[in-house]
Design goal:
By secondary structure, this protein is mainly alpha-helical. 78% of the residues lie in helices and 0% in strands. The chain is built from 8 helices and no strands. Helix 6 (115-131) packs antiparallel against helix 7 (137-160). 39% of the residues are buried.
Amino acid sequence: AVNLAIPFTNALFSIAVLFAVGSSTLIAIFIAQEKRREANALFSQNFATLLTLGAVITALVLLFLEPFAYLLGADEITLDYVKQYILGIAPFSVCYLVSYNLQVIVKTDGYALFTVIGGCLTNCVLDSIAIFPLDMGVFGAAVATGISQLVTCISYFVHFFSKKCTFRLCKFRFDPHLYARILPIGLSDGVTELCT
């Protein structure tokens, strides 16, 4: 069930890296040109876009759960397990998109964090608790993985809302033209991630 559901999380990572590589490149250019307002606006727009995408993906997956499980390759034997796993992980779609996106953008800010290791360790500990003492099965494994992504998001938020961060969330006017620059830059990385 987990193996069948992996393409879903790969697709989330693919979307996140598509936006992250393009936006981090433009943010770095804006910072080098001392255009802080533009860097902040792009960072904020990118963040809002990913929150919206994550909410839409979650809603669609939960609305079409069974057809989606079949699309991933579930059959009569694995269907219930795949649905349980997707039910546990889909509500965390926003966390997947945001954490992986911020993982790339945090490098633009010249700041390194051990958040990936922390998220991985959180996943391992929560998996063993959810599966064994709590007996939550594959649903528990999915929730544990989702919570680990939430922990990773929170770790990044600590940095991005700190005084050490060189760009910040701000009010912005949505500019769709930015994506004409962002998406071509991130496309190859997004496709590479999707190919796994």
